[in-house]
Amino acid sequence: MGINLASYVGATQVRRMVLGDADVQPTPQQLQQMRALVGEAMHDGAVGVSTALMYAPAPYARTEEIIALAAEASKFGGIYATHMRNESDSVLEAIDEAVRIGREAHVPVEIWHFKVAGKANWGHMPESIARVNRARAEGVDVTADTYAYTAWFNSMSAFVPAWAHDGGDAKLIERLKDPATRARIRKDMEAPSKDWDNEWQEISGPQDVMIGVIQNPELKQFQGKRLTDVAKAWNKDPMDALFDFLIADKAFTECAVFGMSEPDVALALQQPWVSIDNDSSGTSPEGILGEEHPHPRAYGTFPRILRKYVREEKMLTLPEAIRKFSALPAQRMRLTDRGVLKQGMWADVVVFNPETVRDLATFDEPNRLSAGMDYVLVNGVPVIEDGKMTGALPGRVLRGAGYKP
How far apart are the C-alpha atoms of 173 and 164, rounded to whole Å? Predict the structure, then answer.
């Protein structure tokens, strides 16, 4: 590998192993089985347990189930990392749940891509920050991270309420094809609710949804287009276009959703306990991955922060930004021999000119490498030299404290 790679064990993965995709609760014996799987993963070197509680079947897990799995990870020096249950109308309650899990499982908590989503919630970042600060003052070890763009990127199927995902994607598509169930799904999406993270209510309209990654080649013409373009091409109401797109692409589609405000994003970025993630799967401008239309954060996150928030807007100092890129996340994942430049540490080193480094990826043209990263060393070996890839693969798997060879 060209990179160093550490992995969490997904609580949803563990749930699916034991319970499948159904909206059911584990028996005490099944919960014990799930805990054992987490323990096994920690022995394999996982750095902790993670959740993505917005995406089915994860929402079916109650807080007590997650506490049990996080407590298992804690035994082995792991942490609990979460894409919270709600990032919009019930974001404060979701933070409280994450804090409760940390407190009762005796485990450090990392809130992934800290945000307040939805136009109705813009300007409410100070309350979220205050809620985290209160928990930290009470002794709960809570931190967060951000990619600092105003659009998120997830499965288009996340627009559909969790109950309609019961049993997995095949069942979801069956429900979308059934007129009565489809009408019920539409009704739920059209009604504001604090009971689930209703993304349809978080956008100003279908123009805020950009089609990203598609599986069905017959739909490829819509990559990089907006949901309004699909609705117009198909002569359909936008919500019907969304449902029919999910059916045609077997619920595989991923999309960018423009639902955050820049002041909220910037305020989150400035918190001393917030580090930087890019929240992206692997991408490449070439080959099979080059055919996808990802979020520009895949290529631009770190150089963009150096350009926009350090150099141009002066919201962060250069040392603050570098700490958020390196030392803070390394400490969070308990990688004690990485994250700072110091004798005896692994030489993961980036050399760049702070006056010229910049992102080039945009939402319309995301597959563009950033400029100004002159040298990147992974474990002391150059993978980028004079701005060019060397082809070297010095990366290694990084394992958590519970690893047993």
Answer: 9
Q: Which helix (H) or strand (E) holds 10?
A: strand 9-10
In contact, 92 and 59? CB cutoff 8 Å: no
Contact between residue 373 and residue 303 where contact means Cβ atoms under 8 Å apart: yes
Place of tokens 């978080």: 202
CA distances from 219 to 23, 204, 282, 293 (A): 31, 25, 22, 13
Residues 62-94 have pLDDT tens digits of 999 999 999 999 999 999 999 999 999 999 999
Q: Which CATH superfamily is domain 9-148+260-389 in?
A: Metal-dependent hydrolases (3.20.20.140)
Amino acid at 54: M
Q: How many Cβ atoms are within 10 Å of 125's Cβ, its own excluded?
A: 22
For the chain, the structural domain boundaries read 9-148+260-389, 153-258
Token pair, residue 186, equals: 């539409």
Instruction: Determine the Cα–Cα distance for residues 277 and 145; give it in Å rounded to an integer.
Output: 6
- Cα–Cα distance, 330 to 381 (Å, whole number): 19
Distance CA 37, CA 201 (A): 37
Tens digits of residue pLDDT in 226-271:
999 999 999 999 999 999 999 999 999 999 999 999 999 999 999 9
CA-CA-CA-CA torsion sign (84, 90, 94, 95): positive
